[in-house]
């Protein structure tokens, strides 16, 4: 039958001129698209959910916004217009309800797995790591590294964290001595956090650091570019993925070399010292899996913490009263540098509040983290959704939505310290480290690292926001993480205590 049908098609094509064939095929293609759009808008299982008709009919509005790295701003506009649940594509819903975090990202016993969507996570690296693996593969890899990012392990890392923080202080001191020179704070913070993650994951401080930084920067751009162009499906594979995989391969080889060196030499405190071992004392994963996760940790561990530090510094420079309160509290708590420890910094409540407020206004991972519902569907925010639906929370939107926050666009650390004015804030909707079994493994490290670096910097220096950086946090593009603009600031040694 198939041969007969194919033969009939060839016979029909042969019996007509090429323009008639082209017109007929084009007409059928247009009719197919039109029918698909009509079905999506009027008959699709998600038809009742609000959103633009164009987004309900076609995927391209959201995909185009992702291509130009404006998807979080696109989704924000839709939520402000249509409400807490918005249909952002034919098969996709975006949520800004507090309960959506648990329903989408926190797998509980008896609930089918809601998996990470390949369109979001598999673009930059087709090999499994903790960021793109699902089910048992993810659980296995996370279990290996869990102890390495525990509070006990982070305490062992404190001397190393202090060392790199002091190196940042020395760099800022050099800038402070120069006249008419501004520091690029994003760059300084990123280099500091990158060196911390490099030492934690096994990269020795050698002459190869330049190569490592160059490759790591390339992997950052790989992730940004690949997520943008993954929307083109098979075309992505040939035009974008192959060149990017060459860079990823180079990074993998470099990671393998460095990991091998660190594991075979010394007993320094690093993730391999705490990683889960098998009965023979070997790391309980393959060398290849180790390499893939080192790439992930080098990027995610450095980039997100650097973004947090850049953002909180910016907001404090814009809000002089908050800066005054924080520096006053730091001055009162720490009479000398020796008192500045990870444990003592936890007790500085206003410091933590400033970091929380920065995470709300400028989350390091601001875009919708897509999940795919299993074949049987799932209940999300009380709604029964069909299998195959793409679901996600829009964090950047949820953290600034007027219905959930008082003064949503303002930097107000007091909202995290029990100020009665902000009692109605839906603080549970702010989950910058996500929730559930796939939340950020490095959360404890990130908190300690950010507290230590920010407190150390503010105890030593005064800053003035650069003229060209007054609107640094406004209108930034993002794709998984922020494509940060330069953040310029004048640096001076602290002249006196702030009263």
Task: Describe the model.
This protein has a single domain, classed as Orthogonal Bundle (Cytochrome p450). Strand 1 (85-89) and strand 2 form a beta hairpin. The strands form 4 sheets. Strands 1-2-8-5-3 form a 5-stranded mixed beta sheet, with helices on both faces. A 3-stranded antiparallel beta sheet has the order 4-12-9. It contains 20 helices and 12 strands. It is globular. The chain is α+β, with helices and mostly antiparallel strands.
Strand-helix topology:
Blueprint: H1 2-14, H2 18-42, H3 53-57, H4 60-67, H5 71-82, E1 85-89, E2 92-95, H6 98-105, E3 115-116, H7 118-121, H8 135-146, H9 151-156, H10 158-177, E4 182-184, H11 185-201, H12 209-229, H13 234-264, H14 271-274, H15 287-318, H16 320-333, H17 342-346, H18 349-361, E5 371-372, E6 378-380, E7 383-385, E8 390-393, H19 395-398, H20 443-460, E9 461-465, E10 477-479, E11 481-483, E12 488-493
Parallel strand pairs: 2-8
Antiparallel strand pairs: 1-2, 3-5, 4-12, 5-8, 6-7, 9-12, 10-11
Short description:
Heme binds at residue 440. The protein has 499 residues and is an alpha+beta fold.
CATH H-level superfamily title = Cytochrome P450
CATH topology: Cytochrome p450
Shape designation: globular
Please, how many domains?
1
Q: What is the strand content? A: 5-15%
What is the C-level CATH assignment?
Answer: Mainly Alpha
Tell me the radius of gyration.
25 Å
| Secondary-structure content class | alpha+beta
How many distinct beta strands?
A: 12
Output mean pLDDT. 83
Helix content: 40-55%
Keywords: Heme, Iron, Membrane, Metal-binding, Transmembrane, Transmembrane helix
InterPro entries: Cyt_P450 (IPR001128), Cyt_P450_E_grp-I (IPR002401), Cyt_P450_sf (IPR036396), Cytochrome_P450_monoxygenase (IPR050121)
GO molecular function, one term: heme binding
Binding site for heme: 440
